[in-house]
Design goal:
binds fructose -6-phosphate, binds zinc ion, globular, 8% helix, Jelly Rolls, 187 residues, mainly beta, three-stranded antiparallel beta sheet, single chain, six-stranded antiparallel beta sheet
């Protein structure tokens, strides 16, 4: 029998207590994501900053999983720090992203090329429909922390986004955040 549990989530730091797992992504592990290769290489050769961490709470045999993603603020060239972006392997699985602190943009793309964005800021819980690729982008000056919730076996399919990119880029232009066409997108 599964037993209930209370899990503490700190909305500022993103700490999950107790957590069952975590991983971190430094910029060096995110080659190919940014179009300014020189800026990426210079940052990797320097401090190779931590771009984001994912912490999870998974209860064995449960049909629910949740956790946090903690994204550092930063930019590579004019592009903000972002996650890799993925579809779920199990195409029928959606997800929610509930922002706790910071600000950002959730960029979503359907299989047939529709693009949508959802603002990420405290108080907004984004609904990610099944079979929409999703990437979060920290457009602010502080950490972007959100709670995600999906099926534990949803799985991640990274290949398509890694190979083709996403149709839109979120960039800093003249001190503003802009969503522009990705000139390198492979249709
Ligand atoms: C799980 C999910 C999040 C992301 C995390 C990192 O389905 O969407 O936990 O995995 O924000 O993003 P990726 O995995 O795209 O690097
Ligand atoms: Zn996901």
């Amino acid at each position: 029998m599964l037993l209930p549990a209370g899990v503490r989530i700190d909305g500022r730091s993103g700490a999950v207590t107790p957590a069952t797992g975590s991983y971190a992504k430094h910029l060096s592990e995110l080659a190919g994501l940014y179009r300014d290769k020189a800026a990426h290489a210079a940052m990797v050769a320097g401090q190779d900053p931590l771009a984001y961490e994912v912490v999870d709470y998974r209860h064995q045999d449960s049909d629910l999983a949740f956790g946090t993603t903690i994204m550092a603020p930063g930019r590579v060239g004019d592009e903000f720090f972002m996650t890799r972006g993925h579809f779920h392997e199990r195409r029928e699985c959606g997800e929610t992203y509930y922002t706790q602190s910071g600000e950002g943009i959730l960029l979503l793309q359907s299989r047939d090329g529709l693009v949508r964005t959802v603002e990420m800021k405290p108080g907004i819980c984004a609904f990610i429909p099944p079979d929409w690729a999703h990437r979060s982008i920290n457009t602010g000056d502080e950490k972007l922390v959100f709670v995600w919730h999906c099926a534990p076996d949803a799985g991640h399919e990274y290949g398509e986004i890694l190979e083709k990119g996403m149709r839109k880029l979120v960039v800093a232009r003249d001190g503003r955040v802009e969503i522009v066409d990705n000139p390198n997108f492979v249709s």
